[in-house]
Amino acid sequence: MAKLIDGKLISAQIRAELKEETKAFIAATGVTPKLTVILVGEDPASQVYVRNKGRACEEVGFAAEQITLPATTTQEELDALIDRLNADKTVHGILVQLPLPKGLSEERVLLRISPEKDVDAFHPYNVGRMVAGQITYLPCTPAGVMELIKRSGISVAGKDCVVIGRSNIVGKPMAHLLMQANGTVTVCHSRTKELAEHTRRADILVAAIGKADFVTADMVKPGAVVIDVGINRNAEGKLTGDVDFASVEPIASYITPVPGGVGPMTIAMLMKNTLTAAKRAVEGEI
Ligand code: NAD
Most buried of 19, 111, 131, 162 (most Cβ within 10 A)? Predict the structure, then answer.
């Protein structure tokens, strides 16, 4: 039986630490960290994510602003809003909720946000810094996975790590962070041949695929640490990860549940980046 890595508990600990740090920061500087989230259109899932981010800000003592724009917003209007927020000294973090409605370019938006306020860490400048090991902000989901691993007392150094998925927001940065923690990393994806031969070698297996219950026990080495990033709805409409929890849990050493594993860590890391952004802004002004 695997030990459960409780992301809900660990993220609550991190938010409590950030709350204390924020209190001290505000007392010392008189500056309240502020995150502005832009939501374009009315995607129901995005509305929930944005609301949760606002709540998390309030919990740790940040100012939170939500700007909702209609789906008919033009690229120029969105650019102008980002420019205004880039110039606003009271705003420390800017996040444009993805996906954007058709007709708007995510690439252009991600380039437009000032790298200093890019708390999602999606700007190519921050991606480059991460790859070079010169870290300012880390992308929230993979950074959350690293925290789960660290706070569970699991060492990555020298371990065989296999990441399934190569997206810009999860798979690729995940592989870099594991490599920087001295893991030996293999990245698998939709074109990988004999996937299970790779995954069965993993001491640490991270699944970021987007396919319900894809990773089954025969793909996992007994005693492996299994991290499930996936968030899917199964045939019954139940929230489920990329890992078939029922079959994998008995053979893994550690496993993250879905929900309550990686999910809550993403917002905690966003809060961490926002506090870092506020600290950097204050330091820049001294
Ligand atoms: P994505 O669709 O951009 O990427 C999926 C990756 O899986 C691709 O790189 C693809 O090559 C790989 N893949 C697809 N089919 C495969 C197969 N048959 N075999 C091997 N690899 C295959 O998705 P994403 O944005 O990286 O997200 C992945 C999952 O993580 C989704 O379920 C998403 O909802 C979830 N997610 C969770 C959080 C969180 O906070 N917990 C954050 C982001 C994404």
Answer: 162
* Residues catalogued as catalytic: 53, 97, 120
CA distances from 222 to 20, 196, 248, 254 (A): 40, 13, 9, 11
**Token pair listed for 111:** 């380039």
| pLDDT tens-digit map of 15-24 | 999 999 999 9
Token output for 31: 């500056």
Instruction: Using the CB atoms, write b or e for 142-164: b if 16+ within 10 Å.
Output: bbbbbbbbebeebebeebbbbbb
Give the 3-state secondary structure percentages of the chain, helix then strand then coil, rounded to 5.
45, 15, 40
Measured at the CA of 207, the angle between CA 204 and CA 158, to 5 degrees, comes to 20
Helices 171-180, 140-151: crossing angle, 10 deg rounding: 40
Q: Which residue has the tokens 């293999």?
A: 186
Which of 272, 214, 267, 266 has the alpha carbon at shortest distance from 245? 214
Tens-digit pLDDT profile for residues 37-63: 999 999 999 999 999 999 999 999 999
Pocket-testing residue among 53, 231, 232, 233, ligand 1, by greatest number of atoms within 8 A of Cβ: 231
